[in-house]
Structures are given as structure tokens and as C-alpha cells.
Design brief:
By secondary structure, the chain is an all-alpha fold. The chain is 82% helix and 1% strand. It is built from 15 helices and 2 strands.
């Protein structure tokens, strides 16, 4: 059986090459040195022993439970052969989705193989272009999704976080200890704030200090607001003072930051709308022309000159979208 002028063996070989290149790209994403990985694991083990004492075995058990996923064999393979896999694992945790490294790698591989098949057999692109495009999409699309999901979760966290701080303030003024105040937040505030404080409460119950537990869960959020809370509690512990009053001032500051962020989003709405229109218009017009007259748009994908023009146009459009996004994004 032949597809697009090639037999099944050649197509299978191209798919195998695409899979191999995808694994190489994943290695580049998780790149590092094995000695660095072993050193970091050793330092983490020493840190756990120093901070939690005899409970380090329970903490290690929790880590093993977290690392287990739907594809345990692939998870172990990635943890063994990709030294900086912990960095990517932290990125996945910021999404709030129960997605392990094995799931992420399998998703990237599936997208790369599927796109290679579509680009080569359906669009009849050159083998090099099909492999390069499938590799770019297989590695890029999951990475973009992880970043988008993490930002969305961070925005949801920032919207609910002032309420959590107010709840801690009320609990402290009622005479409850900080641990009980954190437990109240984990029960009464919905996710993602409640889930973050729930995880911190679980580590505190295992004997981990409050600041250490909060800094650990802060890696799953990556928002400045949560870091403000940890710094305020650490300073109050070292210098003394009224923690409830400090956190009340922090709550007012967080609400003012949120209001400023919403105002900036309103001021930059025109630039963001222009960016979305410019990003979607070429695909809408090109798709419409392809449906109306496929032979007119065919040379853009089937000829070498058309493919070079399409690649240049895509690069130019991507660069323009990146610049407009940077202009429309103002950090607070």
C-alpha cells in the first residue's frame, strides 16, 4: 500500500524518526547532568532530615505517592533519564491538573506522531517539513497549554486569596493559632486557594515548620501575593508584633493590587483585541479560500516555494504577535 507516493515501510520509518526526535527534544527540555540530579536529591534529603527529623520517612512516602501516575513505567523512565525532570514537574503542579511527567511525555509524543501523519499524508508536505512541524507542535503545544493553564490558575488564586487572608485575620483575632487558621482556609475557601492551604496543612501535621511548608506549596502557585504572606509571617515571627494587624494591611494591599490589575487589563483591551484579530484573520481567510477553491491554495502547501512563503509568513506573524503581546502585558 502506498500513500502520497511512499510505501508503508517508508511511512513507518518516518514516524519512528519523528518519535526519536521527539524524545531528543524532551531530553533538551529536561536537560542537565546526572551528577547534578544526584547532588540535588542528596541535598533535598539532607534538608528534609534537618527540618522534619524522624518524619523524613513519611515525607519521602508522600513524594513517592505524588510521583505515581497512570503511566508508572514511563514516569520512572523519565525520572531516571531526565536529570532536570523536577523542574518540569513543578511546572505541571502549577496547572492544578493531576498530570505526571509520563502523561506529559506521552501527550507530546502522541501529538507529534499525529501531526506528522497529518502533515505528510494529508497535506502532502515534504518529509523534512513534516518532521520539523510535528516536532515543533508536539513539544510546543503541551508547553503552551501548561503555561496558559498555570496563568489561569494564578489569576483565580489571586482573586480568592484576599478572602483567605481575611479569614486568617478573623481566626487570629478570635484567639486561634496560626495552624488552625490555615486549616479553616483549607476547609472554607474553594480551590485553588483551598487546595494549596490543604497541602500546607498536611505537611504541617507531619511536623514541617509553617514557613517551610508554605514555601514548598508556593512552588505550585508562582504568585507574588502568596509570597507576601509567607514573608509577612516570617518577619512577624522574628520581630514580634500583631500578626492579625499585619495580615489585615496585607489584605488591603492585595485588593488594591487586584484593582490596579483590572484597570490595566481594561486599558490594554484594545491592543489585545487587535492582536487576536490579526492572529486569527489569516487562518480564517486562508481556510475560506481553501474551502472555496482548493486548487488555488494548493501550491502554497505542495510546492517548495509555497512552503517557504508559508513558513516565512508564519514566522513573521508569530513574531508580530509576540511583540504585541509584550506591549499589551503590564506586570503589577
Amino acid at each position: 500500500m502506498k500513500v502520497a507516493g511512499l510505501d508503508l515501510g517508508t511511512i513507518s520509518l518516518l514516524i519512528a524518526i519523528g518519535m526519536a526526535i521527539t524524545f531528543i527534544a524532551l531530553y533538551v527540555v529536561f536537560n542537565g547532568f546526572f551528577a547534578e540530579r544526584r547532588l540535588r536529591d542528596r541535598l533535598e534529603d539532607i534538608e528534609v532530615r534537618a527540618r522534619s527529623g524522624p518524619r523524613n520517612l513519611q515525607m519521602a512516602t508522600l513524594k513517592r505517592v505524588e510521583r505515581a501516575g497512570r503511566l508508572p513505567t514511563l514516569d520512572k523512565l523519565i525520572w531516571r533519564w531526565f536529570p532536570n525532570a523536577s523542574t518540569m514537574r513543578e511546572r505541571l503542579q502549577t496547572t492544578g491538573v493531576n498530570l505526571t511527567l509520563g502523561d506529559y511525555a506521552f501527550l507530546s509524543l502522541a501529538i507529534a506522531v499525529g501531526m506528522a501523519f497529518v502533515l505528510y499524508t494529508v497535506l502532502d508536505l515534504a518529509p523534512g517539513v513534516a518532521l520539523g512541524g510535528s516536532l515543533l507542535l508536539g513539544v510546543g503545544m503541551p508547553n503552551v497549554w501548561v503555561g496558559w493553564k498555570a496563568k489561569k490558575r494564578g489569576r483565580q488564586f489571586n482573586l480568592l486569596f484576599p478572602e483567605a487572608v481575611d479569614l486568617i485575620v478573623r481566626a487570629l483575632r478570635a484567639g486561634l493559632p496560626v495552624q488552625e487558621a490555615i486549616a479553616n482556609v483549607s476547609r472554607d475557601i474553594k480551590d485553588p486557594v483551598g487546595g494549596v492551604f490543604r497541602r500546607a496543612q498536611q505537611e504541617i501535621q507531619l511536623g514541617v515548620p509553617i514557613e517551610t511548608a508554605l514555601w514548598r506549596v508556593a512552588k505550585t502557585v508562582h504568585t507574588d501575593e502568596f509570597n507576601f504572606l509567607i514573608v509577612a509571617m516570617s518577619i512577624q515571627r522574628d520581630t514580634g508584633g500583631n500578626l492579625a494587624e499585619t495580615l489585615a494591611n496585607l489584605s488591603a494591599l492585595l485588593r488594591a493590587r487586584q484593582q490596579l490589575r483590572l484597570k490595566i487589563r481594561a486599558f490594554t483591551s484594545e491592543a489585545r483585541a487587535t492582536m487576536m484579530i490579526m492572529a486569527g484573520l489569516p487562518f480564517l481567510v486562508g481556510g475560506g479560500l481553501f474551502l472555496v477553491s482548493p486548487h488555488y491554495m494548493g501550491p502554497l502547501f505542495t510546492t517548495e516555494t509555497g512552503q517557504m512563503i508559508a513558513a516565512g509568513a508564519g514566522f513573521s506573524m508569530g513574531f508580530g504577535i509576540f511583540i504585541m503581546n509584550r506591549i499589551a502585558t503590564i506586570k503589577v
